[in-house]
Design goal:
There is one protein chain. This protein has a two-stranded antiparallel sheet with strand order 1-2. The N and C termini lie far apart (71 Å). Helix 15 crosses helix 17. With 890 residues, it is mainly alpha-helical. It is built from 41 helices and 2 strands.
């Protein structure tokens, strides 16, 4: 049997394709908002082209070009047994994709995985020497420097400086607000599109820059050290707690290794340790967000964001258990998320496309192999590097040794970060991981000085220590097999088969991209439809819009996004026409589209909720059934039980409607202050709903084993209910021990004790509520104080009309209690499905707005939210309510 050498591919081969791969990698690393741009047309087409390039590059590199009888091998394997892990990964991806409930989604994601595996082998072809590895990593270092500079420039120019200017404007109105990293849109998102992605990339990059600074001298050393400083600043501006945890891992292991090795002088060692500890202390002291998290943990409270991770991890665990051996399939987290979402999650993590925990995500989508294969790969790589170090001893290349340490620390930091996020779908991050793994595998293959490695068979190079020569002699072979093996013909056949597979994938992708393009063209018609003055023109545009989205659905029938958008948009357009016949026609078309969407993706609350509101005017019983499915998927969704109550009330099921409204208000207490209860038919049952609420709060408070936190919350809510009804004595019984300072001051004003409130006013915390109370007590400064109250409540400059209305109503109100309950400004709105496009992996279309019309008391919602607290994450409370929900649905 001919032996296959591992000689590198000549550098002239594949240079164009390799250059295209490098170009696309740099573009999608530096392109602003790249993580979301690839979800729109035509960027998705360019992204798919970028994924195709490494596959073509690798196939071109391994295509045999020598004549028969000569050494034909052009495949550089990873070695150390890692190739068997890759082979196992491919097999697992094929199996899990074939059995996935959402097979087309799984194929789309599996294709992405195959592209990065091809990139790993293509890059490995050119990493035969230490110089080649250094050249690649220096190039990666320069890309990282560009990333950091661009990140800080974009964030400073588009987020930080505009926010400082806005805060300066608010300061001119007497309200001094700090820059609040607690608001996600103020953290450094640039350039990838999310602060956690930026932090993950920086964790991979920082140790490499440190290693390059150690290896190089002169101005280059200062360049890399500057990059380290910029990277730390960049990491701070992300305010990513997962990123900080990864940094702790890097510094802890790095400093521990320095102390253990005892290299360098004691003064230098002490300075290094002090610098590392100082970096961590600066991060802790300078970050109010980190301080808030640490204090919440110290109090035994996880907080909403930590709860977010707990929820997604729990979902991943449940999905993995349900598909233990094969997983649910790549990409299945999105369509299956709400099916496995626990009821105790409340309103947190209502829908996601990833689980914010890489092991949990892989466990969910690939099953047990999502944990076994990465662990085996890590073990094999560590074993290879350990053997490399032992074989070389003191002759270890200084350059390779530093790269092993720096790349290893980068992977360690990213590994810690990956426990709190999933980022393998980001080109810049996965590309960096591919480069690091290829370099470390190549270093592990490096023979000791003076030793020339013997030629190896393909199987031996892959780590299978079995001679195939004896097998070849014993096993009968069909005619022609020997000639196929000789001269690289078998490799040529394999490449041809793989090329055919790539062609099949490309043909499969064509209609998907045609559907994406058609939908993009459809969404471009929405503005002309809104502006159309001529009725016939408007109808023609709507017809074209419908045809384009229907075409998209036909081309990609597994995509729920298209019928969801078509159904919602047609329903939304029906609200804007006065022609009854046209309205009914649009509603019927919208219902049909949404029904298709719920068939394609049966586990998304959005489809059922939207369908229910359209059905309500046509078939209340069908609407009630849709709303039932909605609240089963997300029991604490705002408006879910309210919608079901409306559907039951329309059908005359009064008792069930009251129970549904009660459940809605228990989870979202501020709803009971809405002026919507003054309209019919809700007004006729409002008193019964309030009585049912009183009874429910009392029964819940009698539940044994309640925590002090939940007990205080229930007392606060029952006190607010009683205050709203005018039963001040009963409210005082709840609030005098468990109420917050806002409720106690509001109650004192309701009781007419203004002197007491006036005396305590200077000691009250600066907040929206305290400014509104001061506005009542100080009529000559009322307008200024009301303006400041709304600025503090919303962190924005309010509409002058709002302040004018609030001032007029307060001037004419007989007392503060009456103003707050009956005369405060009112707002009507429909809640937007923020992030709908990103979560559904398409951003060409508009973000849908719920059909539920919300009417709010603006003073209660904006200025006095403490009176009716509505917590998005409260597992203990949701566990307490769940039996009532299940009983009502039965």
């Amino acid at each position: 049997m001919s032996r296959l050498s591992l000689s590198p591919t000549p550098p002239t081969h594949g240079r164009l394709l390799g250059g295209l791969v490098a170009l696309f990698y740099a573009v999608f690393t530096l392109l602003p908002d790249s993580s979301t741009l690839v979800l729109s047309w035509p960027w998705v087409w360019l992204w798919q082209g970028a994924l195709l390039c490494p596959v073509l590059w690798w196939l071109w590199l391994i295509w045999p070009r020598s004549s028969a009888g000569q050494d034909p091998q052009r495949v550089q394997l990873l070695g150390h047994g890692l190739d068997w892990v890759v082979a196992g990964t491919i097999v697992v991806l094929v199996i899990t994709t074939a059995q996935a409930e959402f097979a087309e989604v799984a194929r789309w994601q599996a294709w992405v995985s195959f592209s990065f595996l091809a990139a790993l082998y293509a890059i490995a072809q050119g990493l035969q020497t230490s110089e080649q590895r250094q050249q690649l990593l220096i190039g990666q270092g320069y890309l990282t420097l560009a990333f950091m500079v661009l990140s800080l420039l974009l964030w400073a120019s588009q987020t930080w400086l505009p926010e400082l200017a806005r805060l300066a404007t608010l300061r001119g109105y007497g309200v001094d607000l700090p820059y609040d990293f607690g608001q996600i849109h103020l953290r450094n998102w640039a350039p990838i599109g999310h602060q956690n992605y930026v932090a993950g990339y920086l964790l991979l990059a920082l140790p490499l820059l440190g290693g390059l600074a150690y290896l190089q001298t002169g101005w280059r050393r200062w360049l890399w050290l500057t990059g380290v400083a910029l990277g730390l600043l960049d990491l701070y501006t992300t305010q990513s707690r997962a990123g900080w945890l990864g940094l702790v891992g890097i510094l802890g292991v790095g400093l521990g290794g320095i102390v253990w090795s005892r290299r360098g002088s004691r003064r230098g060692l002490g300075g290094t340790v002090a610098a590392g500890v100082g970096i961590l202390l600066v991060f802790v002291v300078a970050s109010t967000r980190l301080q808030t998290t640490l204090s919440a943990i110290a109090r035994g409270e996880g907080g909403e964001e930590l709860g977010y991770r707990l929820i997604t991890t729990a979902i991943g665990w449940r999905m993995g258990l349900a598909h233990l051996w094969t997983g649910a399939g790549p990409g299945s987290v999105l369509p299956l998320f709400q099916r496995y979402r626990p009821f105790w999650a409340g309103r947190e993590a209502e829908l996601m496309f990833q689980l914010h925990n890489t092991p949990a995500h892989l466990w969910a989508e690939v099953g047990i192999w999502g944990l076994v294969l990465p662990l085996v790969a890590i073990g094999l790589l560590l074993r290879a590097l350990w053997q490399w170090q032992r074989q070389h001893g003191r002759a270890v290349s200084r350059r390779d040794g530093i790269f092993v340490i720096s790349l290893g620390l980068g992977l360690l930091g990213y590994g810690v970060n990956s426990l709190l996020d999933y980022q393998l779908d980001i080109v810049g991050i996965s590309g960096t991981l591919v480069i690091y793994i290829a370099c470390l595998a190549a270093i592990g293959r490096e023979p000791p000085p003076g030793v020339t490695p013997p030629a190896a068979t393909l199987f031996e190079a892959a780590g299978l220590r079995v001679s195939l020569r004896g097998w070849r002699q014993r096993l009968p072979q069909p005619a022609g097999l020997s000639s196929l093996i000789q001269g690289g013909r078998w490799l040529r056949a394999i490449v041809l088969v793989m090329s055919g597979g790539v062609l099949a994938i490309v043909l499969w992708l064509v209609p998907i991209h045609r559907a994406w393009q058609a939908s993009s063209q459809a969404f471009l018609l929405l503005n002309p439809i809104a502006r159309a003055a001529d009725t016939q023109e408007r109808r023609d545009l709507i017809t074209t819009f419908t045809e384009l989205l229907t075409q998209a659905q036909t081309l990609a029938p597994w995509e729920a996004y298209y019928p969801y958008q078509l159904g919602w948009n047609l329903g939304n357009l029906s609200l804007k026409t006065n022609d009854r016949a046209e309205r009914q026609a649009l509603i019927r078309q919208g219902i049909t589209a949404l029904q298709r969407g719920t068939q394609v993706s049966p586990y998304q609350e959005f489809g059922y909720t939207t369908l229910g509101w359209l059905w309500l005017t046509q078939n209340p019983a069908a609407a009630a059934q849709a709303f039932r499915q909605s609240v089963q998927l997300v029991p604490a969704k705002r408006g879910g039980w309210y919608a079901l109550g409306v559907a039951w009330l329309v059908q005359g099921q009064r008792a069930d409607a009251i129970a549904a409204f009660t459940l809605e208000i228990l989870r979202d207490p501020v709803l009971l202050t809405s002026p919507v209860w003054q309209t019919e038919p809700l007004g006729s049952i409002y008193a019964d709903v309030l009585n049912a609420l009183e009874q429910s709060y009392t029964e819940l408070l009698q539940t044994p084993g309640l925590s002090a936190r939940l007990t205080a919350y229930l007392h606060q809510c029952r006190g607010a209910l009683r205050w709203w009804q005018g039963d001040l004595a009963a409210a005082q019984a709840d609030w005098q021990t468990e109420g917050n300072w806002v409720s106690q001051q509001v109650l004192a004003l309701a009781l007419g004790d203004e002197a007491q409130v006036r005396a305590q006013l200077p000691t009250l915390p600066l907040s929206a509520a305290s400014h509104a109370i001061a506005a009542w007590l100080t009529p000559n400064q009322r307008q200024t104080l009301l303006l400041q109250a709304w600025i503090r409540g919303t962190r924005a400059l309010p509409d002058p009309t709002l302040i004018k209305d609030a001032l007029t109503s307060m001037n004419t109100a007989p007392n503060f209690d009456t103003w707050l309950k009956q005369a405060a400004p009112v707002r009507e709105l429909r809640r937007t499905r923020t992030g709908f496009g990103i979560l559904n992996r398409h951003i060409d279309g508009p973000a849908p707005v719920d059909f539920l019309g919300v009417v709010e008391n603006r003073a209660i919602v904006d200025v006095f939210p403490e009176l009716f607290p509505s917590l998005s994450y409260f597992p203990e409370f949701d566990r307490l309510l769940q039996p009532q929900r299940e009983q009502l649905l039965r």
